[in-house]
């Protein structure tokens, strides 16, 4: 590939009982020279119970800088009826940085969906990274998100508020975002 990396992944899923799935995952990417670029251990329990869907997960990630990220999360959905859904996501991430600094980030999402037409979400993020990173000058970010689906295959999303800038990891997916 373009970054001169190669990687592999192993995943095991076990259906303990009906409506209960346990997933274990290991992934690793190495530079072609053999040096580790990224490594992740991930475990998830996914359970359906009455009108609830529960997901509990935990991930441990390592990047090429030597930093380590520990991320547990809880994702709960409740079906009000055939078209209406309440969704709650609570996520914590502890960052052990290569320079020996540490900080935490929390994310809370509450969402209402009226399928297939629209969804409304309120998201709040907190981080104490301002205590260790001079480039961060705030601790709280909150935004609302309206997503509207129309014409069978079109989607419009409107976000209002503030969100954390930089390397943001949500649901064990990390990306660079503006504030």
Please explain how this structure is put together.
The strands form two sheets. This protein has a ten-stranded antiparallel beta sheet, with no helix packed on it. Strands 11-12 form a two-stranded antiparallel ribbon. The two termini are 30 Å apart. It has strands spanning 5-17, 20-31, 36-49, 52-63, 68-79, 84-96, 102-114, 118-127, 140-150, 154-161, 166-170, 173-177. It is 0% helix and 72% strand. The protein is globular, with a radius of gyration of 19 Å. The protein has 179 residues and is mainly β. The relative contact order is 0.11. The chain contains no helices and twelve strands.
List keywords for this structure.
two-stranded antiparallel sheet; globular; 10-stranded antiparallel sheet; 12 strands; 179 residues; mainly beta
Write the layout of secondary structure elements.
Blueprint: E1 5-17, E2 20-31, E3 36-49, E4 52-63, E5 68-79, E6 84-96, E7 102-114, E8 118-127, E9 140-150, E10 154-161, E11 166-170, E12 173-177
Antiparallel strand pairs: 1-2, 2-3, 3-4, 4-5, 5-6, 6-7, 7-8, 8-9, 9-10, 11-12
């Amino acid at each position: 590939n373009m970054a001169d990396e190669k990687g592999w992944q192993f995943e095991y899923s076990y259906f303990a009982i009906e409506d209960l799935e346990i997933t274990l995952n290991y992934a690793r990417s190495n530079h072609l020279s053999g040096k580790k670029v990224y490594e992740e251990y991930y475990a998830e329990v996914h359970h359906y119970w009455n009108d609830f869907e529960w997901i509990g997960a935990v991930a441990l990630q390592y990047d090429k800088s030597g930093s380590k990220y520990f991320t547990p999360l809880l994702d709960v959905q409740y079906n009000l009826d055939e078209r209406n859904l309440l969704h709650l996501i609570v996520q914590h991430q502890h960052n052990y940085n290569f320079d020996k600094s540490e900080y935490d980030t929390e994310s809370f999402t509450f969402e209402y969906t009226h399928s297939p037409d629209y969804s409304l979400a309120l998201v709040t993020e907190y981080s104490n990274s301002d205590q260790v990173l001079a480039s961060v000058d705030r601790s709280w970010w909150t935004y609302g998100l309206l997503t509207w689906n129309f014409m069978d295959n079109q989607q419009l999303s409107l976000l209002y508020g503030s969100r954390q800038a930089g390397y943001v990891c949500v649901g064990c997916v990390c990306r660079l975002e503006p504030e």
